Amino acid sequence: MKEGTDVFIIKAVLPVAESFGFADEIRKRTSGLASPQLVFSHWEVILSDPFWVPTTEEEYLHFGEKADSENQARKYMNAVRKRKGLYVEEKIVEHAEKQRTLSRNK
Questions:
Q1: Structural domain range at position 3
Q2: Is 0.85 surpassed by the pTM of this model?
Q3: Is residue 52 within 8 Å of residue 77, measured between CB atoms?
Q4: pLDDT on residue 69
Q5: Which helix (H) or strand (E) holds 106?
Q6: DSSP 8-state secondary structure symbol assigned to residue 8
Q7: Does residue 15 sit within a domain?
Q8: Which residues form the Elongation factor EFG domain (predicted)?
Q9: Which of 44, 61, 79, 97 is most exposed, with minimal Cβ within 10 Å?
């Protein structure tokens, strides 16, 4: 807190991919009372492979058949592709059942 004022200064490291729309969201949730100042600090390589799929039996046991744990590199890659209007491979419906109608067929 800045002395003599009602201003709080909060410093945090936020990935650039997560910062799109951040300022608008902060203003919206605080009714315009907070305004962030975003400054580029540094860059860092994401070590995970966005195209990784489990292949060995150990990986299947640890991550499951579909590796449902979210791959951050894949998430960022897909977000950039969507933003640029490029093709993104994603499943709309993974598990669905046919909906039954309430009325009888005549």
A1: 1-42
A2: no
A3: no
A4: 63
A5: none
A6: -
A7: yes
A8: 4-47
A9: 97
